[in-house]
Specification:
The complex is a heterodimer of chains A (328) and B (125). In chain A, 50% of the residues lie in helices and 15% in strands. Chain A has 328 residues and is of the alpha/beta class. A five-stranded parallel β-sheet of chain A has the order 2-1-3-4-5, with helices on both faces. Chain A has a four-stranded antiparallel β-sheet with strand order 6-7-8-9. Helix content of chain B is 43%, strand content 19%. In chain B, strand 1, helix 1 and strand 2 form a beta-alpha-beta unit. Chain B has five helices and five strands. In chain B, helix 2 runs parallel beside helix 3. In chain B, strands 2-1-3-4-5 form a five-stranded parallel β-sheet, sandwiched between helices. Classes of the chains: A alpha/beta (328), B alpha/beta (125). The interface between A and B is large, with 35 and 37 residues.
Chain lengths: 328, 125
């Protein structure tokens, strides 16, 4: 199932597209204006966008430009025969394909299927599978046997460096520069060994008989397996039980994002509870329990804001993609 | 008034949801892990389960969902997933695992209570 955002100002077209796409098993969101489309895309992050160029408020080409500042999903343009120049503008602005009006629904659904396949293929190339271990690079996520791998920022950086250079000898110097920067000192070499040992333990590897990570004595480390392609087409291994895949476990970057989201969720709820409490105070008069409840939520909120600050620092630390040269 | 099992590893969120449910007249049981949640649901069938998708340990939220659906007594209990992931593949995996609805974090107390009311139906309000 994909979520498709349909943007067209004609209700009949939206209705017909909804019926056709739902018939394909898709979930359909629809918008009648460009503004509504941008808002809906921001709120729901669709997997595909079908966009008419003629909209009552914003020009369709401008909608493509706005969406493309942050949304990386296929956009299919619906356009009349007289729109050649604007069609080109839309494609130049980041649309992926166009379909001239009038069109038949079999053609529309076939185009959308092709766009979906392309998306799955793109994602698969960035989700690497090594048997029991799956590393999702864009998500900053790693899972072992479907279980949550909670890696430290340094462990994630090491894992990411290694899985993206399979089979290659990665010297101590290269790994140190990549993870600690050019200013690393001798003490970092010992730290590297410690982090490698911890990473090995988390991914279930044995230094004596390694399946993943081999120590090249005196030189560095080598990631042994090549990523495998699966029959699922999404980089995952086929599940013999037929069960749905577990959620991607998170590596350091995703852990930080996940934790920040949790902090914000708690902060949001805590402030709402405090605000509701003040509403009751105003309506029903002061009661010691209510006052304490509000104070307790405000103390919690302060703690959560502090925690968010720490997480932001941690995220800043992991959110760099320095690519120092390999020095063999 | 409904009996709701909360499954959420984040202590603040767990406590706050319990507080919000209590203020709305529900009773809740707060659990932090999949095994704890399954044990609690096995002990007394709840009216609803609020289930975080990203649980630590061996049992993910989706696996807990599947196990609840696989239990004859618990299969009819509505399950609402709490997730930071709004991507359709995650939502699809949630529905495939048997969830009835999902709520994307961060959410407001009002949204949480409205969605719970929808799942419980008018008689449970």
């Amino acid at each position: 199932m994909a979520t498709v955002l349909v943007v067209d100002d004609e209700p009949q077209v939206r209705h017909a597209l909804r019926r056709a796409l739902e018939g394909e098993g898709d979930r359909v969101l629809s918008a009648a204006t460009g503004t509504e489309a941008v808002d809906l895309a921001a709120a729901e992050t669709p997997d595909l966008v079908v966009l008419d160029l003629w909209l009552p408020d914003i020009d369709g080409v401008e909608v493509v430009r706005r969406l493309r500042t942050w949304l990386d999903v296929p956009i299919l343009i619906l356009s009349g025969d007289s729109d050649t120049e604007r069609k080109v503008d839309a494609l130049d602005s980041g649309a992926d394909d166009f379909l001239p009006k009038p069109f038949g629904f079999p053609e529309l659904t076939a185009r959308l299927r092709a766009l979906k396949r392309r998306t799955v293929r793109d994602q698969a190339e960035r989700r690497l599978s090594f048997g029991r271990l799956v590393v999702d690079l864009p998500q900053g996520a790693a899972e072992l046997d479907g279980g949550l791998l909670r890696l430290t920022p340094t462990e994630w950086q090491l894992l990411e460096a290694m899985v993206t250079h399979p089979g290659k000898l990665l010297t101590h110097r290269w790994l140190l520069a990549r993870v600690w920067g050019d200013q690393h000192g001798d003490e970092s070499r010992q730290a590297l060994r410690t982090h490698i040992r911890s990473l090995r333990s988390k991914i279930g590897d044995d230094a004596g008989t390694p399946s993943y990570l081999r120590t090249e004595s005196g030189a560095g480390y080598r990631w042994l397996p090549e990523p495998q392609r699966s029959e699922n087409g999404d980089g995952t291994q086929p599940d013999p039980t037929g069960a749905a895949a577990p959620p991607a476990a998170v590596g350091s970057r995703a852990v930080a994002l996940h934790d920040i989201n949790n902090v914000l969720t708690a902060l949001h709820l805590s402030l709402h509870v405090a605000i509701d409490g003040t509403g009751r105070l105003a309506a029903e008069g002061q009661h010691p329990d209510d006052v304490e409840r509000i104070a307790s939520q405000l103390r919690r909120s302060v703690r959560l804001v502090d925690r968010a600050g720490e997480l932001a620092q941690s995220l800043r630390q992991v959110w760099h993609d320095g690519e120092p040269p390999l020095d063999g | 008034m409904a009996r709701i099992v909360i499954v959420e590893d984040d202590r603040d969120i767990r406590e706050l949801i319990a507080l919000i449910l209590e203020e709305d007249g529900h009773t809740s049981v707060a659990t932090a892990t999949g095994p704890e949640a399954l044990q609690e649901c096995g002990h007394a069938v709840p009216d609803l389960v609020l289930l975080d998708i990203s649980l630590p340990g061996e049992l993910s939220g989706l696996e807990v969902c599947r196990r609840l659906r696989g239990d004859e007594r618990l299969a009819p209990v509505p399950i609402m997933l709490l997730t930071a992931r709004a991507r359709s593949s995650d939502v699809e995996a949630g529905y495939d695992a048997g969830a009835n609805d999902y709520l994307v974090k961060p959410f407001s107390p009002g949204e949480l209570l409205r969605r719970i009311e929808d799942l419980l139906g008018p008689s449970a309000g």
